[in-house]
Amino acid sequence: MNGQILVEKAYINGQFVKGRRSFNVVNPATGEIIAAVPDLTIADCHTTIDHAYDAWPSWRDTAAAIRANTVRKWYDLIMANKQELARIMTMESGKPLAESLTEVDYGASFVAWFAEEAQRAYGETIPSPKAGQRLLTIRQPVGVVAAITPWNFPLAMITRKVAPALACGCTVVLRPASQTPLTAFAVAKLAHEAGFPAGVLNVITGKDSKGMGTELATNEKVRKISFTGSTEVGRSLMAQAAATIKRVSFELGGNAPFLVFDDADINAAVQGAIAGKFRNSGQTCVSVNRFFVQDSVFDSFAKQLTVAVKKLKVGNGLDEGVQVGPLINQEGLEKVKTHVKDAVDKGAKLLTGGKPKKGLFFQPTVLADVSPSALIAREETFGPVCALFRFSTEEEGIAMANDTEFGLASYFYSNDVNRCWRVAEQLEAGMVGINTGLLSNAVAPFGGVKQSGIGREGSKHGIDEYTAIKYFCFGS
């Protein structure tokens, strides 16, 4: 690969560094090795934290307007390099190029938003209960932030964490997923060009994800850890961070329900289902995992969905018109195969798909009348599979949707405004899509309830995760 922003080095204290060892980055669509990146050690991670800690006081004390301008320059550079960033993303993650281009816009929107929002991190004045006293608060950056991001959205998961942290005066040690480090290095190069001082943003890579995670979660100089990934890993990081009482924000596993009521617009519901299920081959944290369809419209929805799914084009994300790319690795493919086989063994009807293709590809699949005891009812499939369950009453549908320890995203379709309010309020999820299969944007709070996470990203609430409120009491 050639490109002005393609970098195969980590970014530490304002310098791009190679490291003593390396590991390969592989294109999941072709199996081709596209880069070799540094396999850094725990000692390297420790040293990087020290650099971020040393850079913090100066960056914290930099005027908010100057920080905001630097973050805005970063946004401008990201957008100016949109095409190349998208190509890098597709090469290392496998997602269709059209989706990668959309992700650049989406990811950059968080940078633009927080460049402005950090200048509105207001304190407050408080009426005092005593004469002569003056009470007020200010917001201050928490300090060094450790950000651990996943492979499925290599750019957006970075900017949702890093942009608010940098804008409000924190410094950052970013560890991207080992499958997709090139996007992280590319945005680091653009941040370097934007003028962030040395040590303010650092990007490290290494195959020892557990060891690096432990260092980031336990190091006393790290004041905050932000992680997107599995609930299992989130539990471990949270337990480790407890030793130093770190601030944490986690976006963890999901098991998103998608309810179709008998008064829904079926055509619109099918379109929403395609958007909510097959983006990034179903490998998104808010991807629909369980479709609950009311009895009277079940057959109609299943038939129309199957027709739409059969039209999806599978292939290399760089090829024209491809809508569904590969799974990220063999482990991901095996999980999809296991879930489909288990559902069929337990009585589900296979309406289309159901088989792997050459390499890491899997046919877009629709399963009808899936048993509540199937694995897919309990576990996040993370693949291009629609699992359809029946329900009779509104109460039953809501109960089935809520029957999970997860609570990230949820979706439903209905044309009854009263039902829309009832169901939206009763679904146990941090986000609810009503008559839409897409719900995320920079101005709205992104996050879950139950075991799907803690904290919110995006919106005015996103800045809260990286600031602490300090209270002043002036005596008479």
UniProtKB/TrEMBL annotation:
Q: Which one Pfam family would you cite for this protein?
A: Aldedh
Domain of life here?
A: Bacteria
Q: Does the keyword tRNA-binding apply?
A: no
Domain Aldehyde dehydrogenase span(s) in chain numbering: 21-471
Q: Which residues form the active site?
A: E251
- One GO term of the biological process aspect: gamma-aminobutyric acid catabolic process
Which keywords describe this protein according to UniProt? Answer: Oxidoreductase
Please tell me whether the keyword Oxidoreductase is annotated for this protein: yes
One MF term in the entry's GO annotations: succinate-semialdehyde dehydrogenase (NAD+) activity
InterPro entries in alphabetical order? Ald_DH/histidinol_DH, Ald_DH_C, Ald_DH_CS_GLU, Ald_DH_N, Aldehyde_DH_dom, Aldehyde_DH_Superfamily, Succ_semiAld_DH
Assigned protein family: Belongs to the aldehyde dehydrogenase family.
Output this protein's name.
Succinate-semialdehyde dehydrogenase / glutarate-semialdehyde dehydrogenase
Organism lineage string:
Bacteria, Pseudomonadati, Bacteroidota, Sphingobacteriia, Sphingobacteriales
